[in-house]
């Protein structure tokens, strides 16, 4: 054993097409639902060669997340179709107490720029940062967890806690400020917003550390947590507490510090959001509603907590409610936009699927899903780059689809060696 000591590093991309700004980066991802896979997806869409490790004969549970898309005798998760495209699937039992697993894992580490994981208890598998950085001194190690790694600080018992998206929303402070005031309970976001925010912070950290490694030859570890990712996007919530002694409260759909900033029901039973921050935009809103700006001044009615909750401020809010309620959503929207008042209708996925702007932005793309063996339609890319755009070169892989290719082309194993690994259930 110790193959990783002898093998030569093969530059990326070796197994994927060349495209995007991240061509040349190779990422090993050992993780599941949702933050680590989405971070890897973002890197893969912009050109990184991403190897997703899954347990042999088991696979990533993400493949089975409801709802399921079925085509005859084939089925796969709708989420997998969207998030696993462009990845290579390698089946490997990650337990470095198994000599063959250790040899394969460290050989891949030597050939990677980034190791991205959200398994949390990596030491129990025999994996340490010191070991990996000895094998590959330029390696960027990205840890994603609910509460963080002890070496970055914190209470050890807290670092060991298991976590999922709503737990991150709750423990990170977001859930308390989301929803309507008491007696209504706090509310969590309907999608896995905490996981997606955590993934974006992970991508940001990976790119910064990768840039540093390319300049200096020195890798490092990144600690990304669900709770801190959530707390980081709470705007001035903590400054309010530390400097004003104020605990931010829930306000439903109404912005607490200026108006208009609220969701209004329309004549045709839809919902229109109107937001007008600042004196100039506020003035356009007052003019659009045919109101007297001297009476409903920005200072009196719109620019502070006290103003919007004053008698005149509450009167203005009611006038806005009544104005919108007397109009259909599109009518109200187009008029307000003509007056340069920021507004938006609450859209469903069905609305957006046929939306002209979305269509002309190229937001929906088609590609062949490897499990279904048929074309699927999914959301495309964000952000959009003018010179090195993202692309889908392949749909989400089947379980272990790339195992033999990775072991032979990247690590130099023979067909007989690969067969022996498979017989031992290592791959």
Report the structural category: alpha/beta
CATH class of the largest domain: Alpha Beta
Helix content: 25-40%
Kindly, what is the distance between the CA atoms of the first and last residues, rounded to a whole number of angstroms? Answer: 17 Å
The average pLDDT score comes to 95
Q: In terms of per-residue confidence, which ranges show pLDDT below 50 for 5 or more consecutive residues?
A: none
What's the number of structural domains?
Answer: 2
The CATH topology assignment of the largest domain is: Rossmann fold
Rg over alpha carbons: 26 Å
Number of E-state strands? 13
Q: What would you say the CATH architecture of the largest domain is?
A: 3-Layer(aba) Sandwich
Number of helices: 20
CATH H-level homologous superfamily name of the largest domain: Crotonobetainyl-coa:carnitine coa-transferase, domain 1
Strand content: 15-25%
Protein name: Crotonobetainyl-CoA:carnitine CoA-transferase CaiB
GO molecular function, one term: transferase activity
Organism: Desulfitobacterium chlororespirans DSM 11544
Family: Belongs to the CoA-transferase III family.
């Amino acid at each position: 054993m110790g193959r990783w000591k002898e093998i030569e590093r093969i530059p990326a991309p070796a197994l994927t097409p060349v495209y995007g700004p991240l061509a040349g980066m190779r990422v090993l991802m050992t993780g599941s639902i949702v933050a680590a896979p989405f971070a890897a997806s973002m890197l893969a869409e912009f050109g990184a060669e991403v190897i997703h490790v899954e347990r042999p004969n088991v696979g990533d549970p993400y493949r089975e997340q409801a709802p399921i898309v079925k085509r005859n005798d084939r089925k796969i998760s709708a989420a997998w179709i969207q998030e696993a495209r462009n990845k290579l699937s390698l089946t490997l039992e990650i337990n470095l107490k198994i000599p063959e697993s250790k040899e394969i894992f460290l050989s891949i580490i030597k050939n990677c720029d980034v190791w991205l994981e959200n398994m949390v208890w990596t030491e129990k598998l025999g994996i340490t940062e010191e070991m990996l950085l000895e094998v590959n001194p330029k390696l960027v190690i990205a840890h994603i967890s609910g509460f963080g790694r002890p070496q970055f600080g914190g209470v050890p018992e807290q670092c060991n806690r298991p976590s999922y998206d709503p737990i991150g929303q709750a423990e990170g402070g977001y859930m308390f400020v989301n929803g309507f005031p008491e007696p209504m309970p706090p509310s969590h976001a309907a999608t896995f917003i905490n996981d997606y925010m955590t993934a974006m912070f992970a991508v940001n950290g990976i790119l910064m550390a990768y840039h540093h490694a390319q300049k200096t030859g020195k890798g490092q570890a990144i600690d990304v947590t669900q709770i801190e990712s959530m707390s980081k996007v709470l705007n001035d919530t903590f400054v309010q507490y530390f400097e004003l002694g104020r605990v931010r409260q829930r306000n439903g759909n109404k912005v607490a510090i200026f108006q208009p900033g609220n969701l209004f029901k329309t004549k045709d039973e839809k919902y229109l959001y109107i937001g007008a921050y600042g004196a100039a935009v506020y003035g356009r809103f007052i003019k659009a509603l045919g109101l007297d700006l001297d009476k409903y001044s920005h200072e009196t009615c719109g620019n502070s907590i006290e103003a919007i909750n004053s008698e005149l401020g509450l009167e203005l809010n009611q006038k806005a409610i009544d104005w919108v309620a007397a109009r259909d959503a599109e009518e109200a929207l187009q008029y307000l936009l003509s007056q340069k008042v920021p507004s938006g209708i609450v859209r469903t996925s069905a609305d957006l699927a046929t939306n002209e702007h979305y269509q002309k932005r190229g937001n929906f793309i088609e590609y062949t899903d490897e499990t279904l063996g048929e074309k699927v339609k999914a959301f495309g890319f964000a952000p959009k780059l003018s010179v090195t755009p993202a692309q889908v070169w392949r749909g989400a892989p089947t379980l272990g689809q790339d195992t033999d290719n990775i072991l032979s082309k990247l690590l130099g194993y023979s067909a007989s060696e690969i067969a022996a690994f498979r017989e031992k259930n290592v791959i």
